[in-house]
Write a structure and sequence with these properties.
FAD; about 20% helix; transferase activity; alpha+beta; magnesium; ApbE; two-stranded antiparallel ribbon; ApbE-like_sf; about 170 residues; T-fold; 3 helices; 6-stranded antiparallel sheet
């Protein structure tokens, strides 16, 4: 990328994948169309934006526990979380895995990031939640420090060994 113009180019067979921000942006654009509606929830493959609430209270969303590679751990749910006027995003290597490789790669090595199994983030908008879920996944063991020093999000990190870290404002019901 050139600094003065902030432009970049790729060789003919290369491309740029905006998957880490595309879904969140699409959800927020859809929500802007639905804004006149008092209460709605958008679920785009696990990334969610809730506006308002159900007639009987907050929206309840499950936190899926995906299987950890080679561990035989997972399946089911960590629990559920109640949200009103918030977005929840998840990131992990489970969705696009081929053998032991998945789609979230270390930019220095080109190999899959394997310190973290999955992340969940809560934010006011879906794009912020989506971006931070990916950032936390890629941050590995530095993720908890990032999570604790970023005011715009709350979240949960599930490490490859099955241990978890939750920020103070991320409370779920197991």
């Amino acid at each position: 990328m050139t600094k003065p113009t902030r432009q970049s180019s790729c060789k003919q067979d290369n491309g740029v994948d905006l998957g880490s921000i595309g879904k969140g942006l699409a959800i927020d654009l859809a929500a802007s169309v639905l804004e006149p509606v008092n209460n709605f929830i958008i679920n785009a493959g696990g990334d969610i934006r809730a506006h308002g609430s159900k007639p009987d209270g907050p929206w309840t969303v499950g936190l899926a526990q995906h299987e950890l590679p080679n561990k035989g751990v997972g399946g089911g749910y960590f629990g559920h979380i109640n949200i009103i006027n918030q977005s929840l995003a998840a990131s992990g290597g489970w969705g696009r895995r081929v053998r032991f490789f998945h789609h979230l790669l270390n930019p220095k090595t080109g190999m899959p990031i394997n310190e973290v199994s999955q992340t969940f983030t809560l934010a006011n908008d879906a794009q912020t939640a989506d971006v931070w879920a990916t950032i936390l996944f890629a941050s590995g063991k530095q993720g908890p420090d990032l999570l604790d020093t970023t005011e715009e999000i709350e979240g949960m990190i599930v490490f490859a060994d099955g241990s978890t870290y939750c920020s103070r404002g991320f409370s779920f019901i197991s």
